[in-house]
Amino acid sequence: MENKNNSTKKRAYIIFVADSKQYRNSKINIDNILNELSMLCDTAGYEVIERYSFIQQKISAGTYIGTGKLESLKESALIDNVEYFVFDNELSGSQVNAIEDGSNITALTRTEIILEIFAMRAKTMTAKMQVELAFLEFEYPRLKGKRTNLSQIKGGIGLRGGAGEKQLEYDRRRARERIHKLKSQLSKVEKSASTGRKGRGSTFRIAIVGYTNAGKSTLFNLLCKESVYVEDKLFATLDTHTRKLYISDDTPVEVIISDTVGFIDRLPHTLVASFKSTLSEVVEADLLLHLSDASDENIDEKLIHVESIIKEIDASHIKRIVVFNKSDSIDEIQKNRISTSYNDAVFISAKNNTNIEVLKNKILDTILELSRE
User: Fold this and answer.
1) How far is Cα 3 from Cα 237, in angstroms, rounded to an integer?
2) Cα dihedral 134/217/347/339 (nearest 10)
3) Separation between Cα atoms, residue 213 and residue 18, nearest integer Å
4) What is the pLDDT of residue 100?
5) DSSP structure class, residue 298
6) What is the pTM of this model?
7) C-alpha torsion sign, points 88, 93, 94, 96
8) Residue (of 222, 352, 205, 207) closest to 291 by Cα position
9) b vs e for 176-206, b when ≥16 Cβ sit within 10 Å of the residue's Cβ?
10) Is residue 113 scored above 90 in pLDDT?
11) SS (H, E, C) 224-247
């Protein structure tokens, strides 16, 4: 039997809460929600010990979950040596305090887990600034109700300490100043990047977009003969990589292609805003390759989530080719179902180099079509 204390991961319960009216009206799939939250936790270094879902008459203003359920969870957490409760829901600062009160439990939200992953993945100075800005803008409105001391937050994310009113005002002022400074620095980065993009002249620009872990970087490497970092984890790519793409001698213009950060359902707005310079490669593209994992049982939902983010960043007008990756992992029934819904789609396997020439021809046809308009 495994010794609980030997695990290097942080032990957590994941929790989903909905009021009964929301549950009835929204047709919520709790398993899908908890599966994705579990994947996020795993990527961020948490071991999910147990999953809980509660459908209740109304959300508790004080503890979100209700005092009775909370005390029961804390008792179980003591037995299971769990120190983290990760909620799929958003919590106010005062609710975090109430949940953590009188225990060694740290209450986190889905957004904070995503921010932790982005902080882990950020390698370049620009990505680190973008993540810090997203975290500060997420945390700032919650400072008033939360016992949080920004000076004790290691690396921008995750640790909390006690703070009085003077400390709170000091933290809020420091947060405002840091947010202003980061926005100013990132604005300069964006202007520099924009100047570089304008210098491309008549170059045809393609951006690969899709749900996180759909295989965007693998496809990018295959098309460009590159070696961009690939890992079977969420958000492996944060920085945009752009390279020239050779399709054929018949291509009328120079083509460049960009690999972009993965999207996810309810991608925090602070991340969308702070990654503006990265997402500009999407907004300013002439063509989007919307890559999806054909073997994913929630494929339709994820396609919709990606399209909603494309809309959020004002890129809905851009021509798209829908590409279904990992097609070697599906049967004919699934392939026919997808083909019926997306009759102009391309099926590929980036890992096995299947149908890549078909995709290139489709890209060339689209370039020729758009050049005639």
Assistant:
1) 34
2) 0
3) 28
4) 92
5) T
6) 0.77
7) positive
8) 207
9) eebbeebeeebeebeeebeeeeeeeeeebbb
10) yes
11) HCCCCCCCCCCCCCCCCEEEECCC
